[in-house]
């Protein structure tokens, strides 16, 4: 079983920028990135990116909710994911794709407060 993955260099740069702007740490940003990627409801099976970024621990990413993450990914893919596919391939793909979406959402919101209101579905913020 694999316990670590490396994000793309671009994801690392996005997370560093967002950390400077929001004070959110990568262990928080990674969950937001996955959520935005999953919201796309499209496969990441052909998503390609480098592995020159952040080194992340499996537990940091999924915590006690690994089965939930896997089930959601399987629903999107429409098939069972083998263990070595789920982690690191699909988890990494959702993080890397989602990091770009997260940055776009944050930039469009313009502030942490407006971004959080958008995430919560309150008001017309984004």
The count of helical stretches stands at 6
- SSE string: EHHEHHHH
**Overall 3D form:** globular
Reading off the top of the CATH hierarchy, the class is best stated as Mainly Alpha
Mean pLDDT: 95
In short:
The chain is mainly alpha-helical and about 130 residues long.
Could you walk me through the main structural features you see in this protein, from its secondary elements to its overall organization?
The protein is mostly helical and 126 residues long. The protein has a single domain (4-120), classed as Arc Repressor Mutant, CATH 1.10.1220.160. 64% of the residues lie in helices and 5% in strands. The chain has a two-stranded antiparallel ribbon. α5 packs across α6. The longest helix has 27 residues, at 83-109.
What tags apply to this protein structure?
globular, Arc Repressor Mutant, DndE_sf, 126 residues, DNA sulfur modification protein DndE, mainly alpha, two-stranded antiparallel ribbon, DNA_S_DndE
Per-chain topology:
Elements: E1 4-6, H1 9-22, H2 26-39, E2 55-57, H3 58-62, H4 66-77, H5 83-109, H6 112-120
Antiparallel strand pairs: 1-2
Helix pairs in contact: 1-5, 2-5, 5-6
Pfam families: DndE
Protein name: DNA sulfur modification protein DndE
Organism: Ruminococcus albus SY3
